[in-house]
Amino acid sequence: MTETRELTVRAILLGGVITLLFTAANVYLGLRVGLTFATSIPAAVISMALLRALANGTILENNIVQTVASAAGTLAAICFVLPGLVMVGAWNDFPFWTTALITFLGGFLGVMFSIPLRRALVVDTALPYPEGVAAAEVLKVGESGNRAGLRIILTGSIASAGFALLAAMRVAAAEAATFFRVGSSATGISAGLSFALLGAGHLVGISVGLAIGLGILIAWAGAVPILTSGVPGPAEEVALRVWSEQVRFFGAGVIGVASIWTLLSILGPIVGGVRSALAASSERKAGGDTLPIGERDLPIGLVGIGALIALVLIGVLLAANLGDIGNEVLLIGGSLVFVVLAGAFIAAVCGYMAGLIGASNSPISGVGILSIISAALLIGAVAGGGSDSGPLVVYALTVTAVVFGIATISNDNLQDLKTGQLVGATPWRQQVALIFGVFFGSLVIPPVLSLLNQAYGFAGAPGAGPNALPAPQAALISALAKGVLGGTLDWRMIGYGAIAGVVIVGIDRLLRRGAGKACPPLAVGLGIYLPMQTSLFVVVGALAGWLFDRRARRSSDPEGHERMGVLLATGLIVGESLFGVALAGLVVATGSDSPLRVTPDSFASTSLIVAPLLFAVIAAWLYRRAARAQ
User: Fold this and answer.
1) SS3 string of 255-292?
2) Distance from C-alpha of 101 to C-alpha of 198, rounded to nearest angstrom
3) How does pLDDT run across 252-295, given as a tens digit for each residue?
4) Please, what is the Cα angle at 70 between 593 and 284, to 5 degrees?
5) How much is the pLDDT for 2?
6) How large a percentage of the chain has pLDDT more than 70?
7) Is residue 191 classed as helix, strand or coil in its secondary structure?
8) Among candidate residues 627, 545, 530, the one with its CA nearest the CA of residue 209
């Protein structure tokens, strides 16, 4: 029997070409607004459009294209760390080979560490993997020619992109927010009017959505009002400052405890997955092709050798960038142990988070915060005290950049492998494609970072001009490194968050044992840590999806009815993602933050009224159309 075309040269090259666009766009957006977008779905759509013109294009080949492009696009999140080296004055620009090696080695280890997790977190799990499922639905519908499903995806995509276009034109507000005083305290409500977030909420489900909602309440109805009590100033300024400088660290503490608990909870399945991988490797050697296609990962021995080679190269890289610190052998050895242990931990946790709420909404920057704190504590302990913490800060940022590369790729890999599982892909072929994606991304990211640094610079860096890119995560992570190594970091909020995390884990366990319900601790931490304008409409989407599915259960074809809801949510993500790519390219080309704006500043109040009403009408119409589409 002839195997379907899958890992082909043209699929890899097409993924590499798409990489250039998506990676550049993600680096720019990450530095400008501190957000990146998942590229798997738009890559799948573009790939489908191009390969459909060829008679022998297949769904598995399309899957390889989106795997390559999404891995590279996700790796762009390294821009949350590397600009910190410019901000602290260690680099004037981004040396190509050093930047490429840091990016590639971290990403490569992310692929290696996530391979043994596939069975535990992709195959033997009930995690929703919203973007992985959405990408698979796009590929399946395109392959099958399901006209009703295609129409729903297309309708949702057009509506989502159309609303995003109106927001970019400033005809409709992209965000509705109000801040106010309650007695002497300040707080507020803000919502990003995004159909992509609505679709993501539909896909993650009601338990995760409500847990995120609980996190929002803890942050904005509890922590922010308490911490702003008696603080003078405008409500918006006070509330946002307290949230960013204190409450977000509280959320990071919750995420830290929830991450540790999550790892302990899935440790058994992870060990089982590694044993299964070893058994599969032995079975492959003994029986050749007898192993089912869906169980054929890269041989675990090859994974171990690849990881070992990467660690040796990381050691060489760290030695070259060590500077005059002292305790060189102990420091490099300790750093490599940290990379292995933290990398394995982070790969599991980030994979779980991506499965829970999707790669786009996963708090990678929160992982960066925990990584830099841990790395800085380790390095400070090994290197010893000293008046000059500058070289230690540079070294800590370099180690964190490698670990962050592991985090970003693990966050994406398992999402892609879920898509592959749903479309019948061969795991080892997709894992090879992931390595190609990391390779392409590591070649594209350094020149893009260098170009943006030369054109704009970064806020807080030496010589930065008035139009410097904010690079918010890099600024925060470099400030944390200075705070830990310089002894000036306030641990209070992180500690309070850790205590709250323990309480939330306890509540989740009680709910699961008593009522059969769940309150995922990581999702609660996300609700605290993420900006409300990002997280609130995930909650709204989860409620909308729950109501839609309740109605589906009363229909003559419940499964078909629910499927149309999934396809609609998929289309909502596809449309806004593709528009985001196009808009990012236009922003880079024009140098303007608002290249499509057609309204004056005076129209802002009107657009704020128009946007929520228009959003609600479109959303209601879309769900009504999906319910009737069977």
Assistant:
1) HHHHHHHHHHHHHHHHHHHHHHHHHHHHHHHHHHHHCC
2) 37
3) 788 778 877 766 776 665 566 556 655 655 655 555 555 566 56
4) 170
5) 44
6) 80
7) strand
8) 545
- In angstroms, what CA-CA distances link 439 with 71, 102, 537? 9, 11, 35
Q: How far is CA 534 from CA 192, 216, 245, 360, 541, in A?
A: 6, 11, 18, 10, 12
At residue 190, what are phi and psi to the nearest 5 degrees? -145, 145
CA-closest candidate to residue 455, choices 472, 468, 473: 468
- For residue 469, report the phi and psi dihedrals to the nearest 5 degrees: -70, 135
Residue 211 has pLDDT above 50, yes or no: yes
Q: Is the pLDDT of residue 214 over 90?
A: yes
- Residues in contact with 8: Cβ distance below 8 Å, sequence separation at least 6, in sequence order: 61, 64
What is the per-residue pLDDT across 436-468, written as a single tens digit (0 to 9) for each? 988 988 898 888 888 778 777 787 777 666 667
Q: Which class for 535: exposed (0-12), middle (13-18), buried (19 or more C-beta within 10 A)?
A: buried
* Cα gap 508→211, rounded to integer Å: 10
In the chain, % helix, strand, coil (3-state, to 5) comes to 75, 5, 20
Longest CA span, the chain: 74
Count Cβ neighbours within 10 Å for each residue of 284-299 and write b for 16 or more, e otherwise. Answer: beeeeeebeeebbbbb
Three-state secondary structure call for residue 469: strand
- Tokens standing for residue 459: 């806020």
pTM confidence score: 0.71
Quick one: how far is CA 568 from the chain centroid?
A: 22
Strand partners, 124: none
- Would you place residue 590 in the very low, low, confident or very high pLDDT band (cuts 50, 70, 90)? confident
